[in-house]
Design brief:
Blueprint lengths: L2 E3 L6 H15 L15 E9 L8 E10 L5 H4 L7 E11 L10 E4 L9 E4 L4 H13 L2 E2 L2 E5 L11 E4 L5 E6 L3 E6 L1 E2 L5 H11 L10 E7 L2 E10 L5 E2 H10 L5 H21 L3 E3 L1 H21 L4 H18 L5 E3 L11 E3 L5 E3 L10 H4 L6 H15 L7 H19 L7 H22 L5 H11 L9
Parallel strand pairs: 1-2
Antiparallel strand pairs: 2-3, 3-4, 4-6, 4-12, 5-6, 7-8, 8-13, 9-10, 10-11, 11-14, 13-14, 15-18, 16-17, 18-19
Helix pairs in contact: 4-6, 5-10, 6-11, 7-8, 7-12, 8-12, 8-13, 10-11, 10-12, 12-13
Length: about 475
């Protein structure tokens, strides 16, 4: 059932008919579109909201569009099966003529329906349009099913020039005057998005390692609350963890001090999440379920990537060891975690302080799974794999550099948490193996040239190669 707030006389069916040919050609070219390589069979407008007054000479359409495609299996998507009808958030500008400065944002020229004769473009590249979004958040506007909300304690200025942040994957972001960054989610899933939920919780706990949300955009559709965007402080002058690690590696400089500090920051965030939200105890049944899920993902990946098959039997013993461990008397604690932690999700300030960002979790996993309590070691394993990726981007591969970073990260984590992740070697190895299997599947589909990186880790893990030892 669609909801619309548009100009009088324009129905959602007519609007969709007007845009359909353009969206069929434009959507598959976007980096955040999940269904690449598969035909679009149908569109449905979930919401269509005109954000500028009908008397304006310009138009700004906010759309939630359901895109139907044939079911895409998990071994193709690199994770959970793509839904046959994914919902995407679009911001479309409408003009009679597009000025040259906006030419790269062109979606197309409408030839039929209520928008015939107009030009439609990606509105995020238009400063006037993106400025409206910040003003709506500042004023806590409500338009149709859209709700612009904010933290009343945060001061949001009205003269912050916007710019689009380049080189993103699954979402789009606008930076306002080096003060705020607005992340707009592209693929919309009904429910509580952890990228808003967890930073809000952490802000209440006074966790300084995670930027506190200043405002957010919601859509109330069919009794489901959809999180569409989050406005957070823009951490000016910070260095992206991945780029910083590569820079230091290229210069031949030691990175273990940074890795140790990042381990401490990770533990601080984990402790704050454990205080803010309930934790659960994992016993035999839960550990067997976790191990079984890992084994199932391995089987699916081995079917999709032949290069993984020679190692599958040996890798499976890692997951069997985890299941066996659960049959003993030991118990583990699960809690809310980051869920997709790697160097690219971390920012270091000029003063040397680390921040963690992007709490969405792995986009390929179902929202319900991303919000489940999990052992914190899963985040640790993700970061260990990230150090390995950085080390193997150089020539020759800097395996000793990676080992030093991995050890320092675990040491820093233990200094704050009170427990070294390496003291649970079976659990840590299982989660690192599961992550490496995921990476093999991802690289095989998206970046075949990178496939040797996770395959090298697979070979090490399959042969029970040396892991990071506690000092």
């Amino acid at each position: 059932m669609s909801e619309a707030v548009t100009r009088p006389g324009i129905t959602t069916d007519a609007l969709l008919a007007s845009l359909d040919p353009l969206l069929r050609a434009w959507l598959p070219r976007q980096r955040w579109f999940a269904g690449k390589g598969h035909p679009i069979t149908d569109f449905t407008l979930v919401t269509a909201t005109e954000l500028l007054p009908p008397t304006s000479e310009l138009g700004l359409l906010h759309l939630l569009v359901r895109v139907r495609q044939p079911q895409v299996p998990a071994q193709v998507t690199g994770g959970a099966p793509a839904l046959p009808a994914d919902c995407y958030q679009l911001l479309l500008g409408v003009r009679r003529e597009l000025p040259p400065r906006l030419a790269p944002a062109l979606i197309g020229h409408v030839t039929r329906g209520p928008l015939a004769g107009f030009t439609v473009y990606e509105a995020m590249h238009d400063a006037r349009m993106s400025g409206f979004l910040l003003e709506a958040l500042r004023m806590e506007a409500r338009v149709g099913k859209l709700r612009f909300e904010r933290d009343p304690r945060k001061d949001i200025g009205d003269d912050l020039a916007p710019r689009v942040l380049a080189a993103e994957q699954s979402n789009s972001s606008l930076v306002y005057g080096d003060t705020f960054i607005l992340k707009l989610f592209r693929r919309i899933v009904p429910g509580v998005n952890p990228d808003l939920e967890l930073p809000l919780m952490l802000a209440r706990e006074g966790c300084a390692q995670v930027p506190a949300p200043a405002a957010w955009l919601l859509a109330d559709v069919a009794d489901d609350l959809n999180v569409l965007g989050v406005l957070q402080p823009y951490l000016k002058g910070t260095a992206d963890g991945w780029e910083l690690a590569l820079r230091e590696l290229t210069a031949g400089r030691d990175f273990s001090g940074e890795a140790r500090a990042l381990g401490r920051a990770t533990a601080d965030v984990h402790l704050a999440l454990a205080r803010a939200l309930p934790t659960v105890t994992l016993g035999r049944a839960q550990m067997e379920l976790i191990a079984g899920g890992m084994a199932d993902r391995l089987d699916a990946a081995a079917k999709a990537v032949p290069a993984l098959q020679p190692y599958a039997a040996a890798l499976r013993t890692t997951f069997e060891a985890l299941a066996d461990l659960g049959r003993g008397e030991a118990q583990w604690t699960a809690q809310r975690i980051h869920g997709d932690l790697h160097l690219g999700q971390c920012l270091r300030s000029p003063a040397g302080e680390w921040s963690l960002i992007d709490f969405e979790g792995e986009p390929s996993r179902a929202l319900s799974e991303r919000r489940m309590p999990q052992p914190p070691v899963r985040d640790v394993a993700g970061m260990l794999r990230s150090f390995d990726y950085a080390a193997r981007s150089s020539e020759p591969w800097a395996t000793e550099w990676a080992g030093d970073c991995r050890a320092a990260y675990c040491t820093g984590y233990a200094e704050v948490s009170g427990r070294d992740p390496r003291m649970d070697p079976v659990l840590l190895r299982a989660y690192e193996t599961d992550k490496a299997v995921y990476e093999v599947l991802y690289e095989a589909r998206h970046r075949p040239d990178w496939l040797p990186v996770p395959l090298a880790a697979i070979k090490r893990l399959a042969t029970n190669g040396p892991a990071t030892e506690p000092h």
